[in-house]
Amino acid sequence: MRAPLRIAVLASGRGSNLRALLQARLRGELPIDVVGVFSDRPGCAALALAGEAGIPSFAQRPADFASRSEFDDSMFNRIEAVQPDLIVCAGYMRLISDAAVSRFKGKIINIHPSLLPKYPGLHTHARALAAGDREHGASVHCVIPELDAGAVIAHTRIPVLAGDGPESLSNRLLEREHQLLVQTVKAIADGDLDISGNQPRWHGVPIDTPLSSGPNGHLEDQR
Ligand code: GRF
Fold this sequence. Notes:
32% of the residues lie in helices and 24% in strands. By secondary structure, it is of the alpha/beta class.
Protein backbone atom coordinates (compact mmCIF):
# COMPACT_ATOMS: atom_id res chain seq x y z
CA MET A 1 0.00 0.00 0.00
CA ARG A 2 1.20 3.53 -0.78
CA ALA A 3 1.99 5.91 2.06
CA PRO A 4 -0.59 8.73 2.37
CA LEU A 5 0.22 11.74 0.18
CA ARG A 6 1.68 14.53 2.31
CA ILE A 7 -0.17 17.74 1.51
CA ALA A 8 0.60 21.36 2.39
CA VAL A 9 -2.34 23.73 1.88
CA LEU A 10 -1.97 27.43 1.13
CA ALA A 11 -5.11 29.45 1.93
CA SER A 12 -6.10 33.07 2.47
CA GLY A 13 -9.75 32.91 3.44
CA ARG A 14 -12.63 30.86 4.73
CA GLY A 15 -11.03 27.49 3.96
CA SER A 16 -14.01 25.58 2.60
CA ASN A 17 -11.77 23.73 0.13
CA LEU A 18 -9.44 22.76 2.97
CA ARG A 19 -12.49 21.55 4.90
CA ALA A 20 -13.59 19.44 1.92
CA LEU A 21 -10.17 17.75 1.81
CA LEU A 22 -10.21 17.06 5.55
CA GLN A 23 -13.76 15.71 5.47
CA ALA A 24 -13.01 13.39 2.55
CA ARG A 25 -10.00 12.11 4.46
CA LEU A 26 -12.12 11.51 7.57
CA ARG A 27 -14.63 9.56 5.47
CA GLY A 28 -11.73 7.35 4.39
CA GLU A 29 -12.01 8.47 0.75
CA LEU A 30 -8.71 10.30 0.46
CA PRO A 31 -5.32 8.74 1.28
CA ILE A 32 -3.66 11.99 2.39
CA ASP A 33 -2.13 13.65 5.42
CA VAL A 34 -2.52 17.41 5.55
CA VAL A 35 0.86 18.17 7.10
CA GLY A 36 0.58 21.94 7.27
CA VAL A 37 -1.64 24.93 6.47
CA PHE A 38 0.07 28.14 5.40
CA SER A 39 -1.40 31.59 4.94
CA ASP A 40 -0.68 35.21 4.04
CA ARG A 41 -3.60 36.32 6.27
CA PRO A 42 -3.07 35.73 9.98
CA GLY A 43 -6.45 35.16 11.60
CA CYS A 44 -8.21 33.78 8.51
CA ALA A 45 -10.80 31.04 8.95
CA ALA A 46 -8.65 28.45 7.18
CA LEU A 47 -6.05 28.75 9.98
CA ALA A 48 -8.74 28.31 12.64
CA LEU A 49 -9.89 25.19 10.85
CA ALA A 50 -6.34 23.85 10.85
CA GLY A 51 -6.17 24.52 14.60
CA GLU A 52 -9.43 22.63 15.22
CA ALA A 53 -8.12 19.70 13.19
CA GLY A 54 -4.78 19.67 15.06
CA ILE A 55 -2.81 20.53 11.92
CA PRO A 56 0.33 22.69 12.29
CA SER A 57 -0.14 26.08 10.66
CA PHE A 58 1.90 29.14 9.87
CA ALA A 59 1.02 32.65 8.69
CA GLN A 60 3.01 35.71 7.77
CA ARG A 61 1.97 39.16 6.53
CA PRO A 62 3.11 40.44 3.15
CA ALA A 63 3.55 43.89 4.72
CA ASP A 64 6.38 42.50 6.87
CA PHE A 65 8.52 41.69 3.82
CA ALA A 66 10.37 43.96 1.40
CA SER A 67 9.48 41.97 -1.72
CA ARG A 68 7.46 39.06 -3.06
CA SER A 69 10.58 36.94 -3.33
CA GLU A 70 11.54 37.55 0.31
CA PHE A 71 8.01 36.73 1.39
CA ASP A 72 8.04 33.53 -0.65
CA ASP A 73 11.55 32.48 0.44
CA SER A 74 10.38 32.59 4.03
CA MET A 75 6.98 30.99 3.37
CA PHE A 76 8.34 28.19 1.20
CA ASN A 77 11.15 27.45 3.68
CA ARG A 78 8.38 26.73 6.17
CA ILE A 79 6.56 24.63 3.63
CA GLU A 80 9.69 22.68 2.74
CA ALA A 81 10.17 21.85 6.41
CA VAL A 82 6.95 19.76 6.41
CA GLN A 83 8.21 17.78 3.36
CA PRO A 84 5.07 17.89 1.26
CA ASP A 85 4.53 15.64 -1.76
CA LEU A 86 1.97 18.15 -3.04
CA ILE A 87 1.14 21.81 -2.36
CA VAL A 88 -2.52 22.74 -2.84
CA CYS A 89 -3.45 26.40 -3.26
CA ALA A 90 -7.02 26.47 -1.98
CA GLY A 91 -8.21 30.03 -2.06
CA TYR A 92 -4.65 31.41 -1.79
CA MET A 93 -4.94 34.95 -3.10
CA ARG A 94 -1.29 35.67 -3.94
CA LEU A 95 0.90 35.13 -6.95
CA ILE A 96 3.79 32.79 -6.24
CA SER A 97 7.28 33.91 -7.28
CA ASP A 98 9.27 32.20 -10.03
CA ALA A 99 11.86 30.96 -7.54
CA ALA A 100 9.25 29.28 -5.32
CA VAL A 101 7.51 27.68 -8.29
CA SER A 102 10.84 26.36 -9.61
CA ARG A 103 11.76 25.07 -6.18
CA PHE A 104 8.55 22.99 -6.05
CA LYS A 105 8.26 22.34 -9.78
CA GLY A 106 5.57 19.81 -10.62
CA LYS A 107 4.22 19.83 -7.08
CA ILE A 108 1.78 22.78 -6.89
CA ILE A 109 -1.87 22.88 -7.95
CA ASN A 110 -4.51 25.59 -7.65
CA ILE A 111 -8.30 25.61 -7.74
CA HIS A 112 -9.79 28.50 -9.68
CA PRO A 113 -13.49 29.36 -10.08
CA SER A 114 -13.76 29.58 -13.87
CA LEU A 115 -13.42 27.34 -16.89
CA LEU A 116 -9.80 28.27 -17.61
CA PRO A 117 -8.44 29.58 -19.92
CA LYS A 118 -11.56 31.77 -19.55
CA TYR A 119 -11.41 34.38 -16.79
CA PRO A 120 -8.10 34.13 -14.98
CA GLY A 121 -7.91 36.52 -12.02
CA LEU A 122 -10.76 37.92 -9.95
CA HIS A 123 -14.55 38.38 -10.29
CA THR A 124 -14.93 35.27 -12.41
CA HIS A 125 -18.66 34.78 -11.70
CA ALA A 126 -19.58 38.35 -12.63
CA ARG A 127 -17.45 38.13 -15.77
CA ALA A 128 -19.13 34.88 -16.88
CA LEU A 129 -22.55 36.50 -16.34
CA ALA A 130 -21.55 39.71 -18.15
CA ALA A 131 -20.39 37.65 -21.13
CA GLY A 132 -23.78 35.87 -21.28
CA ASP A 133 -22.18 32.44 -20.77
CA ARG A 134 -24.65 29.57 -20.55
CA GLU A 135 -22.14 27.46 -18.70
CA HIS A 136 -19.70 28.24 -15.87
CA GLY A 137 -17.34 26.13 -13.83
CA ALA A 138 -14.08 25.68 -12.01
CA SER A 139 -10.64 24.38 -12.89
CA VAL A 140 -7.76 22.69 -11.15
CA HIS A 141 -4.48 23.57 -12.81
CA CYS A 142 -0.74 23.29 -12.35
CA VAL A 143 0.82 26.44 -10.91
CA ILE A 144 3.34 28.45 -12.90
CA PRO A 145 4.47 31.99 -12.09
CA GLU A 146 1.92 33.54 -14.48
CA LEU A 147 -1.52 34.00 -12.87
CA ASP A 148 -3.94 31.07 -13.39
CA ALA A 149 -2.05 30.07 -16.54
CA GLY A 150 -0.52 26.63 -15.85
CA ALA A 151 -1.74 23.48 -17.64
CA VAL A 152 -5.38 22.77 -16.83
CA ILE A 153 -5.85 19.33 -15.28
CA ALA A 154 -9.63 19.15 -14.87
CA HIS A 155 -12.87 21.10 -15.08
CA THR A 156 -16.23 20.93 -13.37
CA ARG A 157 -19.17 22.54 -15.19
CA ILE A 158 -22.52 23.96 -14.09
CA PRO A 159 -25.28 25.60 -16.13
CA VAL A 160 -25.92 29.31 -15.67
CA LEU A 161 -29.59 29.61 -14.66
CA ALA A 162 -32.03 32.41 -15.49
CA GLY A 163 -31.92 34.89 -12.63
CA ASP A 164 -28.41 33.90 -11.51
CA GLY A 165 -26.29 36.63 -9.93
CA PRO A 166 -22.61 36.36 -9.01
CA GLU A 167 -23.51 35.15 -5.52
CA SER A 168 -25.94 32.39 -6.48
CA LEU A 169 -23.59 31.22 -9.21
CA SER A 170 -20.62 31.18 -6.85
CA ASN A 171 -22.58 29.34 -4.13
CA ARG A 172 -23.78 26.69 -6.55
CA LEU A 173 -20.30 26.26 -7.98
CA LEU A 174 -18.57 25.96 -4.61
CA GLU A 175 -19.93 22.50 -3.83
CA ARG A 176 -18.73 21.30 -7.22
CA GLU A 177 -15.32 22.92 -6.68
CA HIS A 178 -14.93 20.87 -3.53
CA GLN A 179 -15.70 17.65 -5.41
CA LEU A 180 -13.29 18.63 -8.19
CA LEU A 181 -10.46 19.32 -5.78
CA VAL A 182 -11.01 16.12 -3.79
CA GLN A 183 -11.17 14.05 -6.98
CA THR A 184 -7.99 15.63 -8.34
CA VAL A 185 -6.03 15.11 -5.13
CA LYS A 186 -7.31 11.53 -4.96
CA ALA A 187 -6.15 10.87 -8.52
CA ILE A 188 -2.66 12.14 -7.62
CA ALA A 189 -2.61 10.14 -4.38
CA ASP A 190 -3.72 6.98 -6.22
CA GLY A 191 -1.08 7.47 -8.92
CA ASP A 192 -3.61 7.90 -11.76
CA LEU A 193 -2.59 11.52 -12.32
CA ASP A 194 1.03 12.64 -12.60
CA ILE A 195 1.78 16.35 -12.46
CA SER A 196 5.54 16.08 -12.04
CA GLY A 197 6.48 16.82 -15.66
CA ASN A 198 5.88 19.78 -17.96
CA GLN A 199 2.47 18.44 -18.90
CA PRO A 200 0.11 16.59 -16.55
CA ARG A 201 -0.48 12.93 -17.47
CA TRP A 202 -3.55 10.78 -16.91
CA HIS A 203 -2.65 7.09 -16.73
CA GLY A 204 0.60 8.00 -18.49
CA VAL A 205 -1.06 9.90 -21.36
CA PRO A 206 -0.51 13.68 -21.65
CA ILE A 207 -3.69 15.61 -20.85
CA ASP A 208 -4.50 17.79 -23.86
CA THR A 209 -8.20 18.19 -23.03
CA PRO A 210 -8.96 18.85 -19.36
CA LEU A 211 -10.40 15.88 -17.48
CA SER A 212 -13.88 16.25 -16.10
CA SER A 213 -15.16 15.92 -12.55
CA GLY A 214 -17.34 12.82 -12.73
CA PRO A 215 -20.54 12.07 -10.80
CA ASN A 216 -19.08 8.93 -9.19
CA GLY A 217 -16.29 10.53 -7.23
CA HIS A 218 -13.61 10.19 -9.92
CA LEU A 219 -12.07 12.30 -12.63
CA GLU A 220 -12.99 11.20 -16.12
CA ASP A 221 -11.36 11.54 -19.50
CA GLN A 222 -13.84 13.46 -21.69
CA ARG A 223 -12.18 12.78 -25.03
C1 GRF B 1 -12.73 29.32 -4.14
O1 GRF B 1 -13.79 29.75 -4.92
C2 GRF B 1 -11.52 29.07 -4.99
O2 GRF B 1 -11.83 28.56 -6.23
C3 GRF B 1 -10.97 30.46 -5.13
O3 GRF B 1 -11.19 31.07 -3.90
C4 GRF B 1 -12.26 30.44 -3.25
C5 GRF B 1 -11.73 29.94 -1.95
O4 GRF B 1 -12.70 29.42 -1.12
N1 GRF B 1 -9.61 30.43 -5.60
P1 GRF B 1 -12.31 28.74 0.26
O5 GRF B 1 -11.39 29.68 1.02
O6 GRF B 1 -11.65 27.41 -0.01
O7 GRF B 1 -13.63 28.59 0.96
